[in-house]
Structure formats: structure tokens, C-alpha cells
Write a structure and sequence with these properties.
With 330 residues, the protein is of the alpha/beta class. Helices cover 46% and strands 9% of the residues. It binds zinc ion.
Length: 330
């Protein structure tokens, strides 16, 4: 079952035009592994006033489009919701090869920037570090820069998000790429909260075509329920790793379904007591100076990488709705 989930996730990535490598594990496999040891002691209650920076990956075009929608409409809806919540300055991580290959992508990126949002580097081709050399990966970072410079102008675009959150399966590779990023003035945009928000999008498009409103309602609720469970997991991992909750960075993707769900997701975060801060404010916390400094096939969030590198017991198993989602509206 776990393997099927991993395959499904990789198919989704491949559908996004990314270079999905064979044999690599998805990071969430670790979270879903019910055999992991659990801590003996209950964790303390969660903070009443957590903090999060929202970030959006795979700009300017990602995921299947539902009937009648285009990239421009998705970008307009996304920035409109971010602005309505005072989230100007939100970072979007860009693969510039999509500007040439996806209709509407240049306009979508311009809409993002005109709305006062920021951009960062996500490699030119969404390269997978685990299946490529450090040199090839660094070249892909560099080849993304001229277009980022052109679009980003005076903005601080030297923030880097690793595709698939893979930071190198060997310590040598991890250190090589981190040294390259440091040398070229980049900061790593780490992630603490992640729930594979892109995984509902294909099912949503299928259900739209079939006009299956009941299935769409289920997808919406399942997206929020799964997000809530993974957000709790991320915060509990911080308690275990850092002895406290740290200011968070949430990873989302610019898919039509996440764009549709953003109002409900932000509303849920507010009801949980979250307030929103910028990526730079969040990463000024000392926790972000720490480095797991360990090779990892699956990579993952910052607390997740520490959990793995220190062999810490996982808080609990999390819901695995992904097979069900992939079977919906087929
Ligand atoms: Zn990505």
C-alpha cells in the first residue's frame, strides 16, 4: 500500500512535467510508516499562537487545468486571495522552463509579481537532486537565474527551494550543493508544514469533467482534514526535535485546486491561532541555522530531516488518503 502511494505521487510529479526518477522514495513514506517507534511520553499541548509563512512552489504553471480555466485565471485567483489576507510578499518558487512550454505562463508570472509577491529559485527544470549529480543540479540552478533576474528586478530572489525537498542522498552531495548555494548568496527556503497539497488536483479536474459535485465536496473536506492532520504532525515533530514549536514555513503549490481551497485553508489556520509572517521573519529564528547534515534519499521538511537523521520516534501515523483520491472519478 505504501509503495502504491509512492508510485501515485511520482506519477503526479511526472504529470507536472518534472523529471521523476525511478526508485527514489517519497519523503512522506517515513511519516506514513506505522512501524516507526512512537514516543512513550505524551507531547505537551500545541501553542495557542503559532506563526507561519505561506510559500507556493512550481510557478508559473503546475497541475492539470479544469475545463474552462487557464493559467491566467488561476494566477489571478491566487494573488487575489493572498492580497485579501494581507499576504503580499509571499514567495513563489519558479521553474523558468515552463515559461516556454506552458500557454499563459509568462502572463501568470507577471500577475504574481504585479500583485507584490516575491519569487525564488526552484531550479530551471524542477530537477531531482537524488538522481542527478551535484554539478548538473548547480547548473540547473544557474540556468534559472537570468530569467529570475529579469522578472524579479530589485526583488530578493536569492531564496532557494529544493525540488521534492530532496537535499542530497549522500552527505558529500548535500554539502556540495549547500556550499554552492551559500557561495552564490542563497538562503534555503526550508519547509516545516507540508501535506502534498497537489495530490487532490487531478481528481478535482476529473470530477469537474464528470460534474460530480458530491465527489468534489468530499475532495474539499478531505483536503482540509488531511492538511489539519499533517500540520499537527509537523508541529509535534518540532516539539520532539527542537523542544518547542518554531515559526513555520508552509509549502503549497500553484495548482487550480489549492487555489480554490486557499480561502478555507487560511481560515482553518486562523481558527487554529496561526498568524502570518514573511519567510525572512520566520527564518530569522535560530532553528533555521541548524542543519541536519545527513544524506537522505527521501529528504523532507526540516523537522522531518532531523527526525530521520537522529532516528527519533515519530509522533504517530498520519492519514493516507492518496490511493482513494487517485481512484476518484475515474
Ligand atoms: Zn516543486
Amino acid at each position: 500500500m505504501l509503495k502504491q502511494t509512492v508510485v501515485a505521487v511520482m506519477v503526479t510529479f511526472a504529470g507536472l512535467g518534472a523529471a521523476a526518477g525511478a526508485g527514489a522514495q517519497s519523503w512522506h513514506e517515513a511519516h506514513l510508516d506505522a512501524q516507526k517507534p512512537r514516543p512513550n511520553q505524551p507531547l505537551p499541548p500545541l501553542d495557542a499562537h503559532p506563526v507561519v509563512a505561506i510559500t507556493v512552489d512550481d510557478l508559473p504553471a503546475v497541475g492539470t487545468l479544469p475545463p474552462g480555466e487557464d493559467r491566467v485565471a488561476v494566477a489571478k485567483a491566487l494573488v487575489s486571495e493572498l492580497k485579501a489576507n494581507g499576504l503580499e510578499g509571499t514567495y513563489g518558487f519558479v521553474n523558468t522552463d515552463k515559461l516556454e512550454s506552458r500557454p499563459g505562463a509568462p502572463q501568470a508570472l507577471q500577475i504574481w509579481l504585479d500583485a507584490g509577491m516575491n519569487i525564488g529559485n526552484h531550479t530551471r527544470t524542477h530537477m531531482r537532486l537524488t538522481t542527478n549529480t551535484a554539478e548538473a543540479f548547480e547548473q540547473d540552478i544557474a540556468q534559472n537565474e537570468p530569467t529570475l533576474r529579469q522578472y524579479g528586478e530589485v526583488r530578493d530572489w536569492r531564496w532557494f527551494r529544493y525540488p521534492y525537498l530532496e537535499e542530497g542522498e549522500t552527505l558529500e552531495k548535500r554539502r556540495a550543493v549547500r556550499a554552492y548555494l551559500l557561495e552564490h548568496g542563497y538562503r534555503v527556503a526550508q519547509v516545516t508544514l507540508e501535506f502534498e497539497d497537489y495530490a487532490w488536483n487531478d481528481a478535482y479536474c476529473r470530477c469537474r469533467i464528470k460534474q460530480n459535485e458530491a465527489a468534489i465536496a468530499w475532495l474539499r473536506q478531505n483536503y482540509l482534514d488531511t492538511a489539519a492532520a499533517y500540520i499537527k504532525l509537523g508541529r509535534e515533530e518540532e516539539q520532539i526535535v527542537f523542544g518547542r514549536e518554531i515559526p513555520n514555513v508552509m509549502l503549497l503549490h500553484e495548482t487550480p485546486f489549492t487555489t480554490l481551497m486557499l480561502p478555507d485553508l487560511l481560515d482553518m489556520l486562523r481558527k487554529q491561532g496561526f498568524s502570518f509572517e514573511s519567510l525572512a521573519q520566520v527564518e530569522s529564528d535560530p532553528a533555521y541555522v541548524e542543519d541536519p547534515d545527513a544524506g537522505s534519499e527521501s529528504g523532507g521538511t526540516l523537522p522531518g530531516q532531523f527526525m530521520d537523521s537522529r532516528h527519533l520516534p515519530y509522533p504517530r501515523a498520519n492519514p493516507d488518503p492518496f490511493q482513494q483520491i487517485n481512484q476518484l472519478c475515474q
